[in-house]
C-alpha cells in the first residue's frame, strides 16, 4: 500500500516555524497583517476565508476584511485595492477569485502592489516565479505542493516530474517551482498525446487537470509519488480529486488524499507569504 501524504502534519510543522517568525517580527514592532478582499458571499470563498482566519490566528497574523456586495462596482473594488496598497501596516492581500466581472478582476490584479500579492495574482508575482525577478509570491496552492514534497523528503534533483494541467494558478507555476528544485519537468494536459504513457514515466506526478477522476490506474506506475491538487464533489456527494485514489493507491509508492492533502497546506502557505512580506519591509 502507498504511503498517504497527509497535509495536516506538513501544515502543523510549517505553522510552528511561522509562530516563531511572527513573534520575532512583533518584537521588532511589526504585526504581520493580511487583508482579505472578498466580493459577494460565495459559499466556497467563505469556507476558505474561515480556515484562513483560523490559521492566521494560530500563527499570529492579523486579518483585516474588505468586504463588498456581490453587485459592488469596479470603482469600489479598485478603491479597496488602493487603500490596501497605501496602508503600510498591511503586508499581504488575498483577493477571492473569480470575481463576477472579469474586467473588474483584471483591473484589480493590475492595480495591486506586487509586494503585497501573497497569492500569485499579479504580473509581478508571475515574474518572480518564472524569471526569479520581482517582489511577488507563487500562488499558495502551487507553493503548497512544494511544501508537501519537502515535508515528506521527496527527492526532486534529477527526477522526472510530470505536471498535468497548465493553468496560471497551479500547473504552470508548479512546473517552474519543480524546475527550480532541479527536477526535469514535462507539462501535460488533457489533450496531450498518450497522456497515460507520459504520466507513467514520471517519478513525481502532480495532477491539476481540473477534471474529477481523470487519472486512473492506467496512468500510474510503481515507485511514483502522486500529488493530487484537484477537488470536486463526486456523484456520491463526497469530495474527490483528479486522481482515482482507490485505483492509484495500490500501485504507487506515495499519494496525497482528497480531502486532507494539498488543500490542508494552503492556508499555512498563505501565512508564510504574509510573514515573508512583513519581514521584507520590517525595520
What does this structure look like?
- By secondary structure, this protein is of the alpha/beta class.
- It folds into two domains: 28-114, Leucine Dehydrogenase, chain A, domain 1 (Rossmann fold, 3-Layer(aba) Sandwich), CATH 3.40.50.10860; 140-263, 3-Layer(aba) Sandwich (Rossmann fold).
- Helices cover 43% and strands 16% of the residues.
- It is built from ten helices and eleven strands.
- It has helices at 7-27, 43-59, 74-86, 102-111, 123-130, 140-151, 171-180, 195-200, 245-249, 263-281, and strands at residues 3-4, 33-39, 62-68, 92-95, 160-164, 184-188, 204-207, 225-228, 232-233, 239-240, 254-255.
- A six-stranded parallel β-sheet has the order 1-11-8-7-5-6. It has a three-stranded parallel β-sheet with strand order 3-2-4, with helices on both faces.
- Strand 2, helix 2 and strand 3 form a beta-alpha-beta unit.
Summarize the structure.
The chain is an alpha/beta fold. It has helices at residues 7-27, 43-59, 74-86, 102-111, 123-130, 140-151, 171-180, 195-200, 245-249, 263-281; strands at residues 3-4, 33-39, 62-68, 92-95, 160-164, 184-188, 204-207, 225-228, 232-233, 239-240, 254-255.
Protein traits:
single chain, 283 residues, alpha/beta, 2 domains, 3-stranded parallel β-sheet
Based on CA atoms alone, the radius of gyration comes out at: 19 Å
Structural class by secondary-structure content: alpha/beta
The tally of helices reads 10
The third-level CATH topology of the largest domain is Rossmann fold
Helix proportion range: 40-55%
State the end-to-end CA separation: 51 Å
Instruction: Please list the strands of the largest sheet in the order they lie side by side.
Output: 1-11-8-7-5-6
Percentage of residues in DSSP E strands: 15-25%
